[in-house]
Amino acid sequence: MLASALATRKPIASILAQQDAAGASTGLARTLSAFSLVCIGVGATIGAGIFVLTGTAAAQFAGPGLALSFILSGFASALVGLCYAELAAMIPAPGSTYTYTYATLGSLAAWIIGWDLVLEFAMAAATVAVGWSGYAQSLAADLGVKLPAALASAGGNGGIIDLPAAVITLVLTLLLMRGARDAALSNAILVALKVAIILAFVLVGALHVKPELWSPLVPPNQGSFGAFGWSGILRGAGVVFFAYVGFETVSCAAAETRNPQRDAPIGLIGALIVSTVLYVTVAVVLTGLVPYRLLNVPDPIAKAVDTIGLGGFSLVMKVGALVGLTTSCLTALYGQGRIFYAMARDRLLPDAFARIDPATRAPRLGQATIGLLTATVAAFVPIDVLGELVSIGTLFAFILVCSAVLILRRTEPERARPFRVPGGSLLPVLGILGCLALMAGLPGDTWIRLVVWLGLGLAIFYGYGRRRLRAASSGPA
């Protein structure tokens, strides 16, 4: 009986009915517009990828071909983004990939992907918070302020705790506890400022590029897979895929959108277009300003600006990096809160994550718990350990999203689809293949970490979630 329950899908009609039953006064507030969703998507997407990982990917894997790596990752993300748009318009409910998986593969698969999404959202938020800390301390040092080593980082060089990373996580958590509307307004303002600063870097940097630094565009391979050459472009694409983590936060916000059938596709596709254009142009300018082998630094954009010789502009770019990382952390925490809300509503997590505060119309207690746990991780775990977990977990989730489109077209062909991925089954299949190709380009130890993480999730499910599922099947949901 339990085995059949684990494989039982949650019908889309039931998901939508549950959403409607929450009621206008007790459910998540529908206050977001298409523009808000684009800002959420851009805010989530443009952060550590552009301000931190660009230098590492160029110096170690892709060289001046970094722009090609971004195009490759962007193409794979676009295929997945179209699938997200179809599902978000058809199932405007909280939970994103978790909800879509429950509707297609059943509760056990939904739990697995929900646990996997912790890598994408909570771990990504912690990673971005640590990156934020690095830029904040660099800016503070420029102003003559320096933290004691014990409070400046987690591990190494006398560091014990990364205090700034924990503090920014908790501050953003408090903002989210005020409700989606206040958070969306703050995010929109910060996103506008972030895009303006990135465009300033592109325009000013383009006047100082040295075209000879782009030759050869694809440096010769150095004898091993991923060490430059075309395999380096692929490895670089897998690494910078972290830069695209977060655009699907738009689908997490579908339940809080005034017209999700129209606005969710606009938000998803619009965010991807804006982000990809910015990534590619920044990569071209960055590798045209600094020899790629010198870009293996935590603040590559600031290093590129230093070569221009405009000291004040370097300060502006560091502020831009802080703004960019702030919006990424904010939206990642938001997405994690909504996914846990959906899982708790299905009784796969404690009820506390599903409680909506009547004043703010936000899951305050759940959001606070997530913020405290994420702040703890950001405070004590080094950024390299965190970053390695995120990309492969996201790619795994994206494969299930593309698969969900294919399954629902077969199982529920008559259901209304306000947005439909063009080209029949071709683009979802290409999305799956593209994600698998990027996963294949990642190091073997990254795969091991994914397997260990998912194994831990299964242990938690069979120790806790299974009992909750049995209780849910014998009582009202």
UniProtKB/TrEMBL annotation:
The chain crosses the membrane at residues 34-54, 66-87, 108-135, 155-176, 188-207, 227-247, 268-290, 310-335, 365-383, 389-409, 421-440, 446-464. It comes from Methylobacterium brachythecii. This is APA family basic amino acid/polyamine antiporter. It is found in: Membrane. Pfam families: AA_permease_2. It comes from the Bacteria. GO terms for molecular function: amino acid transmembrane transporter activity. It is a multi-pass membrane protein. InterPro entries: AA/rel_permease1. Its main location: membrane. GO terms for cellular component: membrane. The keyword rRNA-binding does not apply. Keywords: Membrane, Transmembrane, Transmembrane helix, Transport.
